[in-house]
Structures are given as structure tokens and as C-alpha cells.
Design a protein that fits this description.
heterotrimer, A alpha/beta, B mainly alpha, C mainly alpha, A: alpha/beta, D-Maltodextrin-Binding Protein, domain 2, ten-stranded mixed sheet, globular, disordered N terminus, B: mainly alpha, 20 helices
Chain lengths: 320, 499, 154
């Protein structure tokens, strides 16, 4: 407690002496990826590191990995680092579900939201030779007999699973009865699709793109508000008559108990990052869509998203 | 003819000096990092991805391919010399390899691993070049029921070969399967056997168990009987190189290992572990000197190592032809492709033939480089064993903990590593085999997930396992493998009675 | 046939039964089941049944030949190595960092294997740890657990 008080005092003193901007370029940041090296969150953290240093926004950036339990172990550690104005953590939509699923004692409302960075729309596909032609066909089948519609996607309680449940609900079916089969990794789910083992598949658009373009998979709908820039032919679910939107977003949060000056420093740094040309290059190379929301907007977005996910997970029976 | 022409074209890309350099760097890094337990090729490629951002696509992909092959190879070195299998695929290699190394036959063990990897890599890469489109058609036809049947075959054949006491072997296997239950259930997302400890939600890492049981357990065991019967480690006895006899005993296992590794590796959920287990048990069955198994039989190194490398090439079949990443490394390589706006899949061969065939050609080159790089190093590696015993084992323990410390340095994970180490020590004392436990941990969860997926698709009808030709055949094989030993011994008794 | 009961086999038998009971208890408390096919409790019950059989078999064996008789162990050697391992965990948990932790493990293990030069081995461990730490940081950009010594290096 005392140390955090002193730390806060020190940062405040720096801010007061009007050195904020100068101190800023000297900023030493730590970004935690609450997953093993090599995963999606780790990729985001390391890309941030790359862009923050290349653009001269921070003097040094250190990436640390805290693995386990859908990121909730990292989250607990972040919340423990109360008042540390140099610490950021990458997180995303998946963590919202993981917190509920793992009955985590900590949650995202205990953190200081900094910004939403990127978002990826999900896509529902069927094999090309499937009799299901569009979202309406699929919705009718789900409504008629949810057991017969098998869904292939990522881990239980993840974005793919939640989309399947939301789809069933929007179609007027019982989300509790969906026959969702989690596969480990996109590759296996994709193989199950191509082999015609399952009715429909859900994943990020990028994962299915090659097969869609090759004509092996048909898009039933993307979960975005409007058609994707890189796939103008793919209809949205809304166009198909299923009123549904879902984005798999990634964001950064900071520890709780930050002073206003610390918050401003961190969100300022991230804002500069998002506007840098280095970041734009990385987004383009990695195929990520910019979905920047500043601290205040992200805060309220996080609240509504958490409420929505927890309702869906209860509906599906994942959380009791 | 088309394929040959494209391949020749590929070689013209891959043989450019700059590409050769990338390949060499990749092979070197891959070997160096593959040696570290717990840090496999996937992690290396992931960490190097940002570095290669500025390189040209062909160059960096060729480098990744080098890292991949190098990493597969590096894993065998530590498995043989230090009995610390750095990844689940080198488990089978460690069984016989470490015994050979301690008996002064580390040189031939490393050599047969290197040359076996080379042969397997070569054949499998040829398979990749010529059979990929055809093989992949079959591969995607594999449903969850077929995978389940394949796991059962692996279970049956493997458990028939471990140890001389079925009771102790099965106990070890079931303990492993029990550990496989720990963590989040893949199909429902709820926690099993975690007792509210969040660190356990991710389950028990295979490398943590393997390194704990093998390396740490062995160190404790050797130390505990140091006074009574000090262990003798002979760095080199006889030839450093493979003898004529070694060659004679190695070539067939290499080929059989490749025959297991390549097709199973090409399956979207095949993996590298199952073929190495199948190869190990096949070699034990076919070996002319079965009494040598468990004491350092060269076949037990040659076969699994070949299977391991062939499966690495197999993984590239679905990656290049369908864009299906079927292993962690392949997933990262896919990210590498996408970083340049390339999407592997049916279109890539048509759109970027230079790149694809350049990559395939550089796999051949990486293979040659690996063998050229590693054979002269064998003498050096083997001398590691000449380090005084206290330092050698102290070094092994430092090495064993390093991977865990780098990837997941939580006290719980470290505690598990040492807990398993102590368990490994106790199991050695009472003559329980430790390998079945790791096998149970690897195969148990895979078999469970595939069976449950199969039954979810069939809406609970178990007949799905017998209605599909592939799974029915595989289950038949498993049944025969299970029953055959009893029938045979029965027949022998019958004959003996007749005489 | 000896009339004595083999204690190790008896203990293993009871331990297996206890583990089986834990697995069954855990499975019985699962709240979420699959809608279709078999649920998350099927495999635990299979494992549990197997362990009960193996446990009973061990009890049976305890009254027959028992487990292979182990040789006497060198307790002091074991204690040194286990001490080194525990020291490493404690060092990491308390924020001592990778280099010191490595030095503890290295020197204790060497001691356990009969070397009598603890200070020299600590020095070797420190050098080894520093080299590995730098290698990981520079080559792989992976940071191993940091403590006071690591702070000096960066």
C-alpha cells in the first residue's frame, strides 16, 4: 500500500513539474500477454511493442507472458499490480467468457480500461455442396431441430460458441439445445467442414478465407454491421434476416487504482500508437481491422458486452 | 512431369545464395532452440515472426521451414543425451536413446537419429511434392470416429510393449490418463480435477510430466544409489560412428518409421506422437534382439526418430494444399504466410508457384544441411557426457527447469515438475515403467475428445464407430493386436502339448 | 510363499483407491453435461473404474509376492537435491530471479552427487544462469523471471 502511494506520488510529481511530455518519450512500458508466447494476445502485445518503440512513443517496452485459464491468471496478476502506471495488459472478447466460465474471482470491471484496438468479424460457413444456401435456410433448420445442426468452431465458451448460441436464439430456436462441437484450433474445424462432417462452421473470416475463395465453402453470413472490405460478396447475417452482430475484439487494460495523470499518460500513449503509421502497417500485414475506442467509450462498451455475454452463457447453460 | 518441372523451378529459387543463407540460419536456430526442453519449433517461429517482417516472403518462409526441421531434429539430441524429451514427439526416442548414450553408444544413437531424420525427411518431402493433392483428399475424409479408432490402435499396441509387469504398466498408464483429465474439458468448457486452483485449468503439460518423470526422476534415482552402485556413464565405447551392424539394423526401421509418420502427420488431427509410439512398438515386435529393448536398442531410436521427422513433413501437406494448420508450428507458419498477404490453400499453388515450390525445394536443402551440420557435431555432443557426474546432473536439472521457467514460471507449474520428478524416482525404485504414464497423458485426452465429437455428431449412436470403413478397420486391427498374443501363446501351448 | 504383507504394494493399492474416489467425487460434482453423446463425466468414470481394479490388484499382490524390493537409498543425497529444487521454487516465488535460482539448484545438485566445493559450484551456477538469461533475452526476446541480479543486467 505504502509503496503504491509513493509510486503514485512520484508520478504525480513528475506530472506536476510539467515534464509530462518529456517524461513520456522516456516512458518504460510493460505489456503483459495473458497467454503463452505465440498466441493471438501475444501477437498483439509484441506488435504493440514493435510499433511503440519504432514510433518513438516509448523508450522501452517489455513483453511478459502469464499463461493460464483463458487469461484470468494474468488478469489476477494485473489487478494485484494496483497503481502501476507502466503496466498494460492485452485482452479481448474471449476473456469476458473465460472469466464467467472459470468462475474467476477477479473480473474486468476491476481494471482500468485503456482502449479497444482491433476487431474481427466472425463468419458462418457451410460446405459448398450443402443444401443450405443462406442464413434463412440455416435459421429454419436450427429452429426445426437444433440437434441435427452440428456446429464446428473453437473452444467452448469462446466467441464462436457464443455466436452459434446467439444465432439459434435469433432464429427462434432453443440456444440450450445447440449441437456445438468445439475443435482444437481452426485447422481441425476446417477439416471437419471440408470433409462434410458437420453442418456449419464458425471462425474468424481470415481463417476460412482461402477455402471460401477457392469455392469449397459458402458464406452464410458475417457477423459485422456491414460487408467486409476484403469480402464484398459475403452477405452479413443481418441481410440474411438474422438480426445479429458480434465482433471478436482485442483491447488493452491497465491495473486499478491509477491517478488521472497516469490514466492520461497510458491512454495518450495508446492513442498515439493507434495513429502511428507503424501500427497501420502492422494492421495491414496481419489483416487486423482497426476498431479503436478511447478509454471512456471502451469503458461503457465493455460493460454492455459483459452483460450480453453473461446472458448468452447463462442461456446456453455454460454458466449456472 | 509437371511436378518435376515445378520442382526444378523451385530449386532454382531455393538455391539462390541469399535463400541458402536464410535456410542455414533457420536450420541453425531451429536446432539450437529445439534442444531446449519446452521450447519447440512453434515458439521459435512465433518469436522470430516480427524479426522477419522486413524480409522478403520467400526468404523468411524458407527460414521458417529450416527452423521447423531443425527444431524437430534438435529435440532428439537432448532426448538421447540427457534423457530430457523436450517435446512429446521425442518421448519414444528418449526411451532407448538415453540407454544407448549411457552405455557409450551415444554416437551411433545420434547418428542413426540424424540419418534416419534425413532419410525420413527426404522421402516425406518427395511425398509432399508428388502425393500432396491426392493424400489430402483422403486426409479430410477422416472423421472423429476414425481418429478415435486410430488412438485405440496406438493405445493397444503401445501398452502391449511397456515393461514386463502388466499390473505396473497399466497402473502407470491409468495415472497418466487421470492426469489427462485435469483442466478445462475441451467440449463443455468446465473444469475437472482442478480443486479451485486456477493454474490447473490449463491441464498438465506433456513436457512438464515427461521432463519431470524422465530427467528429474532419473537424477534423484541415480543420486540415491550413488554409494551402493554408482552409475557408470561411458561417453564413448567402441566406434563413435555407426558400425556395419548398426546400419543393417537401422535402415528398415527408418523406412517403417517414415511409413507411419508421413501419412499420420498429414491427417489434420494426426500429430507426431501417435506415429512415434506405433513405430516404437512395431520395432520392438520385429526386432531380432528384443532382449536389448530397454537396454538401448538402436531400432528404438531409428524408427521413432524417422517417424517424428516424416510427420513434420506430413503436416505441411494440409497446410500447403488446404491452408489447414494442423500443428502449432504450422499455425504459426500460416500466420507467416498471411503476414505477406498470402493464403495457403488450393489457390496458392496456382498463384504463387515460385514460392510454394521454392519452399518445398528448400525443405530438401534444409534436410541436407541438417545432416551436414549435425554429423560432425556428434563427437562434440557426446563429450558432454564426459563432464564429471555432479556437474552433468546439476546441468541436466538446470536445463530441465529452464523451459518451464521461460514459458510458465509459476510456483504451481514448477511444483508439478518436481512433484512428477519425485514420483518418477519412486516409480523407478519399485520398478514401475514411467513411459506409459506420459503415453496416457498424451493419448487419453485425444481419444476422449474424438470419441465425444463422434458421438455428438451421431447424436449418441455408438454404431457410428463400426459403420465407417476406416474406423471399423482400425478397430479390427486393434482387436487383433489385443487378442493375438493370447491366441499365439495358446497355440504354442497346444503344440507343445501335442509334441 | 511368505506370510508377511508387502507394505509398499498395500500403500499403492490404497492410494489408487483413494485417487479413484477423488476422480469419482469430482465427476459427480460436474454440473454441465453435453446435450448429445456422452458428457464430461464418462471418461472420469472409466479411469476411476480402471483404478479401482488396479488398486484391488495391488492389494491382492501385497499378500502374494509384493512389489520388487528396492535397495536402500542415500537419504542425504536425495535431501540435497530436493532441497535445491525447493530452493529454486522458493527463489522464483519470492522474486529472487532466474540467476540466483539456477545457482541454488546447480550447487545443491552437485553437492548431492558428492562434490564438496559448494562455493565454487555456486559461482559456476551464477555464471551459467547469467549466460542462459542473456541468451534468452537477446536471442529469443523471452524474459526469464527477474530479480535483483537481472535488474543489474538490463
Amino acid at each position: 500500500m505504502l509503496t503504491s502511494f509513493f509510486k503514485r506520488g512520484a508520478v504525480a510529481a513528475v506530472a506536476l513539474t510539467g515534464l509530462t511530455t518529456a517524461a513520456f518519450a522516456q516512458m518504460e512500458l510493460k505489456i503483459m500477454a495473458p497467454a503463452a508466447p505465440g498466441g493471438g494476445w501475444d501477437g498483439t502485445a509484441r506488435s504493440m511493442q514493435q510499433a511503440l518503440t519504432a514510433a518513438g512513443i516509448a523508450k522501452s517496452v517489455q513483453v511478459t507472458n502469464v499463461t493460464g485459464a483463458g487469461g484470468t491468471i494474468g488478469l489476477a496478476q494485473l489487478i494485484g499490480a494496483k497503481g502501476d502506471g507502466h503496466q498494460l495488459m492485452v485482452n479481448g472478447f474471449v476473456m469476458v467468457g473465460a472469466i464467467l466460465l472459470n468462475k474467476s474471482p477477479v473480473n474486468l470491471s476491476q481494471t482500468t480500461p485503456i482502449a479497444r484496438l482491433t476487431a474481427e468479424a466472425l463468419v458462418i460457413v457451410v460446405p459448398t455442396d450443402s443444401p443450405i444456401k443462406n442464413a434463412k435456410d440455416l435459421a429454419e433448420r436450427v429452429k426445426a431441430d437444433p440437434a441435427k445442426v452440428t456446429w464446428a468452431g473453437g473452444s467452448a465458451g469462446g466467441a464462436d460458441h457464443i455466436l452459434a448460441a446467439l444465432f439459434a436464439e435469433a432464429a427462434g430456436g432453443d440456444p440450450k439445445k445447440i449441437n456445438y462441437i468445439p475443435f482444437s484450433g481452426g485447422g481441425e474445424a476446417l477439416a471437419a467442414m471440408l470433409g462434410g462432417r458437420v453442418t456449419a462452421g464458425i471462425s474468424g473470416y481470415g481463417e476460412f478465407e482461402g477455402q471460401i475463395k477457392a469455392g469449397k465453402l459458402r458464406v452464410i453470413g458475417v457477423s459485422a454491421t456491414k460487408r467486409l472490405d476484403n469480402a464484398p460478396d459475403a452477405p452479413t447475417l443481418k441481410e440474411g434476416g438474422v438480426n445479429l452482430e458480434l465482433l471478436n475484439w482485442r483491447s488493452v487494460v491497465a491495473p486499478p487504482g491509477l491517478s488521472d495523470a497516469q490514466k492520461k499518460d497510458l491512454s495518450g500513449a495508446v492513442e498515439k500508437l493507434v495513429k502511428s503509421k507503424e501500427w497501420a502497417e502492422i494492421l495491414k500485414a496481419r489483416g487486423w481491422d482497426d476498431a479503436y475506442l478511447g478509454a471512456a467509450e471502451f469503458d461503457s462498451f465493455l460493460k454492455t458486452e459483459t452483460a450480453r455475454v453473461s446472458k448468452v452463457m447463462t442461456d446456453v447453460g455454460l454458466v449456472k | 512431369m509437371d511436378t518435376l518441372l515445378s520442382l526444378a523451378n523451385g530449386f532454382s529459387v531455393a538455391l539462390e545464395p541469399s535463400k541458402l543463407l536464410f535456410c542455414l540460419i533457420g536450420v541453425f536456430l531451429g536446432t539450437a532452440v529445439g534442444v531446449l526442453p519446452g521450447i519447440g519449433p512453434a515458439l521459435t517461429v512465433a518469436l522470430l515472426l516480427p524479426v522477419t517482417f522486413k524480409l522478403d516472403p520467400a526468404g523468411s518462409l524458407i527460414m521458417f521451414a529450416g527452423i521447423y526441421y531443425g527444431g524437430m531434429y534438435g529435440g532428439s539430441t537432448t532426448a538421447i543425451l540427457l534423457n530430457a524429451p523436450g517435446e512429446s514427439a521425442s518421448l519414444a526416442t528418449a526411451l532407448e536413446g538415453s540407454k544407448m548414450a549411457k552405455a557409450g553408444r551415444g554416437g551411433p544413437a545420434l547418428a542413426t537419429a540424424a540419418i534416419g531424420s534425413f532419410v525420413a525427411g527426404l522421402i516425406a518431402t518427395i511425398g509432399l511434392a508428388f502425393l500432396a493433392p491426392w493424400l489430402v483428399e483422403i486426409a479430410v475424409k477422416f472423421g472423429p470416429w476414425d481418429y478415435f479408432a486410430l488412438m485405440i490402435v496406438a493405445f493397444v499396441t503401445v501398452s502391449a510393449t511397456f515393461g514386463d509387469s502388466p499390473l505396473r504398466g497399466l497402473t502407470s498408464l491409468f495415472l497418466g490418463m487421470m492426469l489427462g483429465l485435469v483442466g478445462i474439458d475441451k467440449l463443455t468448457g468446465q473444469a475437472r480435477l482442478t480443486f479451485g486452483v486456477p493454474e490447473l485449468l490449463n491441464g498438465v503439460e506433456v513436457t512438464t510430466l515427461a521432463v519431470g518423470l524422465f530427467a528429474v526422476g532419473e537424477a534423484l534415482y541415480v543420486a540415491s544409489k550413488r554409494w551402493r552402485e554408482p552409475e557408470e556413464i561411458i561417453p564413448i565405447k567402441g566406434s563413435l560412428w555407426m558400425t556395419k551392424e548398426d546400419w543393417k539394423r537401422s535402415w528398415a526401421p527408418w523406412l517403417r518409421g517414415t511409413a507411419f509418420g508421413f501419412p499420420i502427420g498429414a491427417l489434420p488431427a494426426g500429430g507426431a506422437e501417435v506415429p512415434t509410439f506405433l513405430s516404437y512398438s512395431t520395432e520392438k515386435k520385429l526386432c531380432k534382439y528384443p532382449e536389448e529393448f530397454g537396454k538401448g536398442a538402436i531400432e528404438g531410436v531409428a524408427g521413432p526418430e524417422a517417424a517424428n521427422n516424416a510427420s513434420a513433413a506430413g503436416t505441411l501437406v494440409p497446410l500447403l494444399t488446404l491452408g489447414l494448420p494442423t500443428s502449432a508450428t504450422a499455425a504459426i507458419m500460416l500466420a507467416g504466410f498471411q503476414q505477406y498477404g498470402l493464403n495457403p490453400g488450393p489457390l496458392l499453388f496456382a498463384e504463387k508457384p515460385d514460392l510454394v515450390w521454392g519452399l518445398i525445394a528448400s525443405l530438401f536443402i534444409a534436410n541436407v544441411m541438417l545432416v551436414v551440420l549435425n554429423l560432425p557435431l556428434i563427437g562434440l555432443w557426446v563429450r558432454l557426457l564426459a563432464i564429471p557426474q555432479p556437474w552433468l546432473y546439476a546441468g541436466i536439472l538446470v536445463f530441465a527447469t529452464m523451459g518451464t521457467l521461460a514459458v510458465n514460471p509459476s510456483p504451481v507449474e514448477l511444483g508439478m515438475l518436481f512433484g512428477f520428478g519425485y514420483l518418477g524416482y519412486l516409480m523407478r525404485r519399485f520398478d514401475y515403467p514411467v513411459a506409459p504414464m506420459v503415453v496416457g497423458l498424451i493419448l487419453g485426452p485425444m481419444a476422449e475428445a474424438q470419441l465425444r465429437r463422434a458421438l455428438q455428431i451421431s447424436l449418441g449412436d455408438p454404431m457410428i464407430l463400426l459403420e465407417n470403413p476406416i474406423s471399423a478397420t482400425l478397430l479390427g486391427i486393434a482387436f487383433i493386436a489385443l487378442v493375438a498374443p493370447f491366441v499365439m501363446s495358446g497355440l504354442n501351448k497346444f503344440k507343445a502339448a501335442e509334441d | 510363499m511368505s506370510r508377511t504383507i508387502d507394505r509398499p504394494a498395500l500403500i499403492v493399492g490404497f492410494l489408487l483407491l483413494a485417487v479413484a474416489a477423488i476422480v469419482a467425487f469430482d465427476a459427480s460434482r460436474q454440473t454441465i453435461t453435453s446435450n448429445y453423446g456422452v458428457g464430461p463425466t464418462a471418461m472420469p468414470y472409466v479411469v476411476c473404474a480402471g483404478m479401482v481394479l488396479l488398486g484391488l490388484a495391488h492389494l491382492f499382490v501385497a499378500f502374494r509376492d509384493g512389489l520388487p524390493k528396492p535397495e536402500a537409498a542415500d537419504g542425504r543425497a536425495l535431501l540435497w537435491i530436493v532441497g535445491g529444487l525447493v530452493g529454486l521454487i522458493a527463489c522464483i516465488a519470492l522474486g529472487g530471479g532466474f540467476i540466483i535460482a539456477t545457482a541454488i539448484l546447480f550447487s545443491c545438485t552437485a553437492r548431492g552427487f558428492g562434490r564438496d566445493a559448494l562455493l565454487v559450484d555456486i559461482a559456476i551456477g551464477l555464471v551459467l544462469g547469467t549466460a542462459i538469461y542473456l541468451l534468452f533475452l537477446k536471442l529469443l526476446t523471452l524474459s526469464l523471471p527477474t530479480g535483483p541480479l537481472e535488474a543489474l543486467l538490463s
